[in-house]
Design goal:
With 497 residues, the protein is of the alpha/beta class. The chain is 35% helix and 22% strand. The protein binds ligand BES, manganese (II) ion and zinc ion. Zinc ion binds next to strand 9.
C-alpha cells in the first residue's frame, strides 16, 4: 500500500477524486455541515439511502454505496460519533473502519476524507496511515495457499497539506515494527523458538547496522544467571540471551534499556497449566520480546538522535523433562539473591530477574520491561489496557502519555510495599509466587528486587493486550503487536523519566 497526502476542495470533492473509492466521515449530528455538503454533491438520494440503512454516524459505523456508471464507483460513509469526542482514538477508529469497508468492496485506490482541519496535519496523517495499514494486516505465512490480498494499492489522505507527508514516513517505520511484533507473536511455538528470535534480531542488526550480542547457555552460567537458566533447563532447545544495541546518532545524551519477556512457549513446567489455562495459546508468551524487537525495528529506521537504546531478551521455553526444575527448588540469580521456586509456572519473572540485572549493569537512564506476566492482569484490565507499575511518577506519566499518542492504553497499578510479605520464603530470600489475590502486584514487586535502587524503571504487564481473540480497534483478530507504539513514542519524545 502506498500513502499520499493531498489537500482537498470540499466544493468539488466528487468531481476531483479520480480513484475508484471515496470514504467520507460523517458525524452523528444530522445537522452537521459536512452531511449537508455531501447531500448537495450527491443529491437527495443519499439522504434516502442513509435513512433506509439506518445510518446514525456512530463511531466506526459504515455504509457502502456502490454506484453504477458513476465516479467514484464506490462511496464509503463512516460514522465519526459526536464532534466533541473526535480526537486521536476516534480518528484512528474511523480510518480503520473506512479502510476495512473499502477493502471489502475491492477498492484499489482509496481516498479518505475525514475532518482533520482542526488537528495537527503531520500527527493526523500518521494516525490515519497507521490505522489503515494495521487494520488491513493479514498473515498468510502458514497457509498452503494464500488468500488473495484485499488491500487498496494506493491510499490518499484528503484534506491534508503536503507537509503532512512527513508523518507518513514515520507511520511506515512504526507499522513495520508493529507488523514484525505481530508476526513473531503469531508464529507457532515450533517455529518461533529462542533460536528464531535470535535470527530475527540478527536480521535487524544486519539490515540496520546494529550491534548484537547473543549469550549462549554457558555465557549466562558464567554471569550467574541461575534464575533464567532454571527455567531454560527443562527444554531441549538451547536458551538465547539477546542484547541488541541501537547506537545514538551523534553524542549520547541518554541511554535506555527495553527488556522483553521471551518465553517462546510456556507449558507451566511441573506446575503444568491445567484445562482452561490456555496452554495452547502460550506461544504468545514472548509478546514482550516481540514488542521490544518491533520497537527496535521502528527506531532503527527513525533513528532518534542522541539516544542509545538497548534491547534485552532472555528467551527460552518453559517445558517438562527429566532435567526440568522441580517446584521447591532454590536458585540464585545474577545479583546474588536466592529464590525458592514455589511455582514453576511463574517463570517469566525468573527470566526477567536476570535480564533486569543485566540491563541495570549497563547503567541506563531508564529501564522499561514488557511481559505477558500474569493471568491476573488479564482478569483485572481485560484485553485493551495493559498494567503499568513504576516507582517513578515521571516515567509512569511519560509512558501513559506516549501510549495515548500512539493509540494504546496503559493503567497505572500500585507497587504496594506491604504485599511483599506474600513473597516471604522460610529458606531463601524470596519465593517466586505470592498468594492469588493481587498476583500482578506481587509479580511486579518480585521484579523490583532485581532493579538497581533509584534507577527509573517501569514494568508493563501485557498479558491481556498481546492477543485479541475477536479483533478490536485497529487490530485484526490475533497478535496485536501491543507495546511497539508506546515504546517508539516514548523514545522519540526523548525517553523522559
Ligand atoms: N505466561 C503466564 C501469564 C499469562 C497467563 C499470560 C494467561 C497470558 C494469559 C505466566 O507465566 C504465568 O503462568 N503466570 C501465572 C503466575 C502464577 C503461577 C502466580 C498465572 O498467571 O497464573
Ligand atoms: Mn507461566
Ligand atoms: Zn509465562
Amino acid at each position: 500500500m502506498e500513502f499520499r497526502c493531498t489537500p482537498a476542495d470540499p466544493d468539488n470533492l466528487l468531481e476531483s477524486w479520480s480513484g475508484d473509492t471515496l470514504a467520507v466521515g460523517l458525524f452523528q449530528d444530522t445537522d452537521h455541515p459536512v452531511r449537508g455538503e455531501l447531500i448537495r454533491l450527491i443529491g437527495d438520494d443519499l439522504q434516502v439511502q442513509l435513512e433506509r440503512r439506518r445510518f446514525q454516524g456512530k463511531p466506526g459505523e459504515t455504509v457502502v454505496l456502490e454506484r453504477l456508471n458513476a465516479q467514484p464507483a464506490c462511496l464509503v460513509l463512516v460514522g465519526l460519533g459526536e464532534p466533541s469526542d473526535f480526537h486521536g482514538t476516534a480518528l484512528r477508529q474511523a480510518a480503520a473502519s473506512a479502510a476495512r469497508a473499502a477493502a471489502q468492496a475491492g477498492s484499489r485506490h482509496l481516498g479518505l476524507w475525514l475532518p482533520v482541519d482542526d488537528l495537527e496535519p503531520r500527527g493526523s496523517a500518521m494516525a490515519m496511515a497507521e490505522a489503515v495499514r494495521l487494520s488491513l494486516y493479514s498473515d498468510q505465512r502458514f497457509r498452503s495457499e494464500a488468500d488473495p490480498l484485499r488491500q487498496p494499492e494506493q491510499v490518499t489522505l484528503l484534506g491534508l497539506a503536503e507537509s503532512a507527508n512527513a508523518g507518513l514516513e514515520q507511520a511506515a517505520a512504526i507499522c513495520a515494527g508493529v507488523e514484525l511484533a505481530r508476526a513473531l507473536v503469531a508464529a507457532p511455538p515450533n517455529v518461533a523458538t529462542p533460536h528464531y528470535l535470535a535470527e530475527a534480531a540478527a536480521t535487524l542488526a544486519a539490515d540496520f547496522q546494529l550491534e548484537l550480542k547473543v549469550l549462549e547457555r554457558d555465557d549466562c552460567a558464567q554471569l550467574g544467571m541461575g534464575a533464567y537458566l532454571a527455567v531454560a533447563q527443562g527444554s531441549d532447545l538451547p536458551p538465547k540471551f539477546l542484547h541488541l544495541t541501537l547506537p545514538a546518532r551523534g553524542v549520547v545524551s541518554r541511554r535506555v534499556a527495553l527488556v522483553g519477556k521471551g518465553l517462546t512457549f510456556d507449558s507451566g513446567g511441573y506446575n503444568l497449566k491445567v484445562a482452561g489455562g490456555q496452554i495452547e495459546m502460550m506461544k504468545y508468551d514472548m509478546g514482550g520480546s516481540a514488542a521490544v524487537l518491533g520497537a527496535a525495528r521502528a527506531l532503527a529506521e527513525l533513528r532518534p538522535s542522541d539516544l542509545e537504546v538497548h534491547v534485552i531478551v532472555a528467551s527460552c521455553d518453559n517445558m517438562i523433562s527429566g532435567g526440568a526444575i522441580q517446584p521447591g527448588a532454590i536458585v540464585t540469580a545474577s545479583n546474588g539473591k536466592t529464590i525458592e521456586i514455589n511455582n514453576t509456572d511463574a517463570e517469566g519473572r525468573l527470566t526477567l530477574a536476570d535480564a533486569l540485572v543485566y540491563a541495570c549493569r549497563l547503567e541506563p537512564d531508564a529501564v522499561v520491561d514488557l511481559a505477558t506476566l500474569t493471568g491476573a492482569c488479564l482478569i483485572a484490565l481485560g484485553d485493551e489496557v495493559a498494567g503499568l507499575w513504576s516507582p517513578s511518577d515521571e516515567l509512569a506519566e511519560a509512558l501513559i502519555t506516549a501510549a495515548e499518542a500512539g493509540g494504546e492504553s496503559l493503567w497505572r497499578m500500585p507497587l504496594r510495599r506491604s504485599y511483599k510479605d506474600g513473597l516471604k520464603s522460610q529458606l531463601a530470600d524470596m519465593k517466586n509466587t505470592g498468594p492469588r489475590p493481587g498476583g500482578s502486584i506481587t509479580a511486579a514487586l518480585f521484579l523490583q528486587e532485581f532493579v538497581t535502587k533509584g534507577l527509573a524503571w517501569a514494568h508493563l504487564d501485557i498479558a491481556g493486550t498481546v492477543w485479541s481473540d475477536k479483533g478490536r480497534g485497529l487490530d485484526p483478530a490475533g497478535a496485536t503487536g501491543f507495546g511497539v507504539r508506546t515504546l517508539v513514542e516514548w523514545v522519540r519524545q526523548g525517553a523522559p523519566a
